Amino acid sequence: MERKTLDALKNEKDAVILAHYYVDDDVQAAADHVGDSFTLAKLATTIDAKRIVMAGVSFMGETVKILNPDKQVYLPDPKADCPMAHMVTIQQIKEMREKYEDLAVVCYVNSTAEIKANSDYCCTSSNAAKIVGAIESKNIFFIPDGNLGRNIEKFFPEKHFINNQGCCPVHDGITPDLIKQLKKRYPDAAILAHPECRPEVLDLVDYKGSTKGMIEAVKDLNKDLNIIITEEGLRYELDKTYPDKTFIFPEMICEGMKRVTIDKIIDVLESGKNEVHVDPALAERAKLPLDRMLDICS
Ligand code: 13P
Ligand code: SF4
């Protein structure tokens, strides 16, 4: 279908499209706003339209709905999921709360509404250290991403981190050996990596940070050649922002993000299907850790 159709539909339905940097180029091009997880969560609280289509994976749709209970929020494909969002259980949280009296449960935004509702603080890859720095409790149960927890733990020697075992299958697959090979092959390149990678990988790179952080860091690192250790969808924004630079990505593909297509967006706008529903009582509890994150980072 033509882009004109999508624009007309957006107007007719009073809809705004939000997209994560990992979705396909044509979806990013069609979106009203493209961003990292934190930018999208923050932006979602300021949107004036009646309907929001979240072009991303399901926890992102849930997050937008939790922050906007009165809006109609849609996912182009409800099967677009982040496996890491399910890598911790409520039982684990309960057991940890029983074990440590002074415990803060810090929940990466890549998590289900149920897990958020049982957590104390949310964070994203761009603000995890800032959030932990604002918490008084000594014991931090960092869920579900063990790599992100380990990557920020070193900034807080006074705290006791209990890092969950979950990980992003896309980022966790990157090994220190691969980084060493890339360094050998491209000695003049800057290497930038997402903090969902293992700590041994981040130890070898020039910059570690969220997708948005990486886009900004390319400017400061000032290299013609940049190796980007994250999902390949980020190439679209990098090429747009730095047309004279070269970007190399190892093959990193998030299957969930790749399920989002323009046709599916048109379909949900036309049919009204795939609306995101979160039980209002659960959403109210899940909103608290998200609001705390937004407050700390305001
Ligand atoms: P960002 O916080 O950089 O948007 O990352 C989200 C994500 O899912 C990375 O895999
Ligand atoms: Fe989840 Fe990894 Fe995909 Fe991000 S890249 S949405 S963490 S599976």
TrEMBL record:
It comes from the Bacteria. Pfam families: NadA. It is an enzyme of class 2 (transferase). GO terms for biological process: 'de novo' NAD+ biosynthetic process from L-aspartate. Its cofactor is [4Fe-4S] cluster. Pathway: Cofactor biosynthesis; NAD(+) biosynthesis; quinolinate from iminoaspartate: step 1/1. Its EC number is 2.5.1.72. GO terms for molecular function: 4 iron, 4 sulfur cluster binding; metal ion binding; quinolinate synthetase A activity. GO terms for cellular component: cytosol. The keyword Transferase applies. InterPro entries: NadA, NadA_sf. Keywords: 4Fe-4S, Iron, Iron-sulfur, Metal-binding, Pyridine nucleotide biosynthesis, Transferase. This is Quinolinate synthase. It comes from Peptococcus niger.
